[in-house]
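Person: I have long wanted to understand how a fold can be written as tokens. Underneath my words sits a plain record pairing an amino acid chain with its backbone structure tokens. Those tokens are not coordinates but codes from a learned vocabulary of shapes. I should like you to check that the lines agree and flag anything odd. The protein I mean follows directly.
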Amino acid sequence: MSAFAARIGLFGVVLGLLAACGVGGADDTKDEKKVELNVGDKAPAFEARTDQDKSWKSVDHYGKKWVVVYFYPGDFTPGCTAQANAFRDAMHKLAEKGVEVVGISGDAVKTHELFKKAQKLNFPLLTDEDGTVARKFGVPVGPGAKVKAKDADGKVIEIERAATLARWTFVVGKDGKIAYMNAKVTPADDAKKITEFITKAEEK
């Protein structure tokens, strides 16, 4: 084998390892054309299971209220916990403005149930284990992961999620169109930014 061929072979092995570890958050699991949404586009319709294992259909919510749809990597992780708690603490103010919030990750229904109870969340969490919903919004989907955490009773648990979604946040306006989107979310500041955006939009 020539030196050049050896280098090519090694390069392929390295790429394979990087892909297996989910480095870069690349979405290699589907071959279909990647969706690219923009502000003003019609919000994608979708259906998903909630933390209570009930059906949540966007058609029942779009066009009636402001709907915040935020995608996040996984339950019980530090950044996602901070983001969820920020929305929890802002829910009273958001609800007064006619805003509904849903969080979406690749975690299972049972994991969502445990996370919601542990953090005392006051909004639904939706499961997207195969990344179907995320891809409709153009959100990158990476491999799953295992996480150790503590439940509401302080018991150490090990959970496994099927997919890891990128942290993107969308606001669907009362007209059913994308009014706001952020692909570079700072977890703890997300709820504040959303509240400010909707407050200004309502004043126009």
